[in-house]
């Protein structure tokens, strides 16, 4: 059986990265590790490690990005929680078997990780991301 091992990151939707970094990096003093493009979500993500987990700032890369819709509706804020699992394919199979509504039936392969989203309707309102670290 696949296992949840830790909270990998908390995703926070922001419309302006420089503006967000003024708080998270400059005021709180969390270092910016790196910024990545996530074409599958039409987003850019900035990772700021805090202990064993990250704050992930999610910025829309285009106007029709899902994250842009979220920001337009809610004005930004906490967008998703990401938990790490030891075997994402096994976890997705387990969830599917239990009738859990998934956004991604198959993991997306990114550098250093595989990822998939679980629908918030299945989790009590939390958009939940699964990660399996592959590096
Ligand atoms: Zn994320």
Q: Can you walk me through this structure?
A:
This protein starts with a strand and ends with a strand. Strands 2-3-4-1-5-8-7-6 form an eight-stranded mixed β-sheet. β6 (about 110) and β7 (about 115-120) form a beta hairpin. The chain contains three helices and eight strands. By secondary structure, it is an alpha+beta fold. The chain is globular, with a radius of gyration of 15 Å. Zinc ion binds near residues 11 and 80. Zinc ion binds near residues 9, 80, 82 and 129.
Number of helices: 3
Note the beta-strand portion: 35-45%
Shape: globular
Cofactors, ions, other ligands: zinc ion
The biggest beta sheet reads:
8 strands, mixed
Q: Could you estimate the helical fraction of the residues in percent?
A: 10-25%
Class inferred from helices and paired strands: alpha+beta
Radius of gyration over alpha carbons? 15 Å
Strand order of the largest sheet: 2-3-4-1-5-8-7-6
Number of strands: 8
> N-to-C terminal Cα separation, in Å?
21 Å
Spans with pLDDT under 50 lasting ≥5 residues?
none
Determine the mean pLDDT: 96
- Provide the succession of SSEs: EHEEEHEHEEE
């Amino acid at each position: 059986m696949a296992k949840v091992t830790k909270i990998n990151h908390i995703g926070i939707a922001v419309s302006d990265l420089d503006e967000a970094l003024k708080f998270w990096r400059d005021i709180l003093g969390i270092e910016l590790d790196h910024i990545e493009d996530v074409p599958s979500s039409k987003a850019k993500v900035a990772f700021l490690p805090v202990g064993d987990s990250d704050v992930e700032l999610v910025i829309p890369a285009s106007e029709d990005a899902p994250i842009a819709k979220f920001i337009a509706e809610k004005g930004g804020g906490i967008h998703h929680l990401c938990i790490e699992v030891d075997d994402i394919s096994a976890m997705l199979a387990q969830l599917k078997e239990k009738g859990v509504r998934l956004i991604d039936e198959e993991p997306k392969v990114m550098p250093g990780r595989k990822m998939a989203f679980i629908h918030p309707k299945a989790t009590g309102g939390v958009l939940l991301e699964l990660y399996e670290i592959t590096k």
